[in-house]
Amino acid sequence: MTESNEFDEFFQSGNKKVAQFDTEGAISDYTKALEIRPGSGIIYRYRGLAKKEAGNLEGAIEDWVLGTELKDQDSINLLLKHFKYLSIKYLFKKRILLINDSITNEIANQIVAQILHLDSQDSNKSIYLFVNSAGGNLYGSLGICETMKNSTANIYSICWGITAGSATLILASGTKGKRSSCREGKIAFNLPSIPSETPNLKSVEVEEYSAAQKIISQELREVTNQNIQRIIEDAKYWDKNQDNFLTPQEAISYGIIDNIVDDNFLIKILVNNEK
Fold it and tell me: Are 7 and 97 found together in one domain?
């Protein structure tokens, strides 16, 4: 039997076993096919799908990364489709961090601890922080910003959806030149304001809102190089007109981010971090 025939036999056998719900047998056959032809991106894709069916999503991702390196477009599509299902533990190994919810003290402390650990582990390797959040606890968010600014490792900050409030401040606190947004990103530029439904706040509560406005505007001035008065006036204008979302290009002009990235950016991170 020729090498080509042997490869085809293992490949077809793997496909049949998948149809028979024998995923472990299929994985074994696909592996044997790869031993014969290790440059086949298609087989990595199929073996990844079999691993996913067997409940091993992280193993599937590893195979789709290899398929991506071999220019298999369907492997790329599978990576993008399943990115949101990856465990925090798996992403952490790839130096990828996520803020994908309102920022609580617990989430802030977790992100701070993760940045400190990755920075001490290898400060020559970049850290990637994906942000999709409407903000949250101000002082927890400021703790994240301070940790980012003091990190020796470069920190890529990426808007992967929407950022608002203190989450936008976190986005803007990444390493200069490495702050970005996906093309569909929406970046809300606003400051804490007194809720209209609670006009009779105590003076101490009014002072807290004013202090929060001052803190965020000062931090934004530092990372965007805009003057505080412009930041305050622009935030009031956008709030008043209920149009406080910037496009990625507008956010670049304002100094919040530096670049616009596409799906290939995520693929490059996953592929490069395999090495």
Answer: no
Tokens 């209209």 correspond to 196
Query: 85, 118, 135 — which closes off a domain?
Result: 85
Query: What CATH number corresponds to the domain at position 210?
Result: 3.90.226.10
- Residues 122-140 have pLDDT tens digits of 999 999 999 999 888 888 9
Nearest to 154 by CA among 131, 181, 128, 116: 128
Contact 138, 103 (CB under 8 A): no
Which run of H or of E encompasses 44? helix 41-53
Which of 11-20, 26-35, 186-195, 204-213 is predicted with the least confidence, judged by mean pLDDT?
A: 204-213
How many helices (DSSP H) and strands (DSSP E) are in the chain?
A: 13, 7
Q: Tens of pLDDT along 141-159?
A: 999 999 999 999 999 999 9
243 versus 257: the higher-pLDDT residue is 257
Q: What is the DSSP track for 80-124?
A: HHHGGGS-HHHHHHTTEEEE-S-B-HHHHHHHHHHHHHHHHH-TT
Q: What is the pLDDT of residue 202?
A: 55
CB 171 within 8 Å of CB 131: yes
> In terms of domains, do 143 and 231 share one?
yes
- Domain extent for 178: 88-272
Q: Which two tokens stand for residue 132?
A: 């999709």
From 85, 114, 130, the end of a domain falls on 85
Q: What does the pLDDT average to over 15-35?
A: 96
Q: Return the exposure string of 216-238: e unless at least 16 CB atoms fall within 10 Å of the residue's CB, then b.
A: bbebbbebbebeeeebbebbeeb
